[in-house]
Amino acid sequence: MSADQDARTGGQAAKGELSLLLDDQMCFALYAASRAVTALYRPLLDELGLTYPQYLVLLALWERDGVPVKDLRAALQLDYGTLTPLLKRLETAGLLRRQRQADDERTVRIALTPEGAALRERARAIPGAIGDAMGLADEEFDRTRASLRRLTRNVTAHAEGRA
Fold it and tell me: What are the HTH marR-type domain coordinates in residue numbering (predicted)?
């Protein structure tokens, strides 16, 4: 398709071709949704003195405290280069502590401090506020989350199959 034809059709793909229109791209829909949702969290987390990634770390620890870094890394799907600075900042803020395991010096466990555990109560209203702002019925919320989880599994499996 020539540039003139492309401009006349608004960039629409010919029959059988995949579109290159921005609004037709799954990656853009995911990116825009992620940015919008993360922006919803910002003012709520500012009140707690947390960034969104720090909040995710605390969510994982509120669910299961005293975990090895490798388990936390797997739960959050982060690499060590991203997770380690997050843990250092949260430790400096007095919300968690890193401890080498006595019987295996290679293993570092992450545990909440009393301040980190107490922050959970202040964060309790956040999921409801975010859910309300999304404007999805409970069933639609659950379906969307399930679809996103399936998408993540599929893309991860595909990427691992190519490695």
Answer: 23-153
For every one of its 163 residues, what pLDDT tens digit does the chain have, with 9 covering 90 and above? Answer: 444 445 445 556 677 789 999 999 999 999 999 999 999 999 999 999 999 999 999 999 999 999 999 999 999 999 999 999 999 999 999 999 999 888 887 889 999 999 999 999 999 999 999 999 999 999 999 999 999 999 999 999 999 887 6
Q: What size, in residues, is the chain?
A: 163
CATH number for the domain running over 50-126: 1.10.10.10
Quickly list DSSP for 33-60. HHHHHHHHHHHHHHTTT--HHHHHHHHH
Report how far residue 95's alpha carbon sits from residue 118's, in angstroms, rounded to the nearest whole number: 9
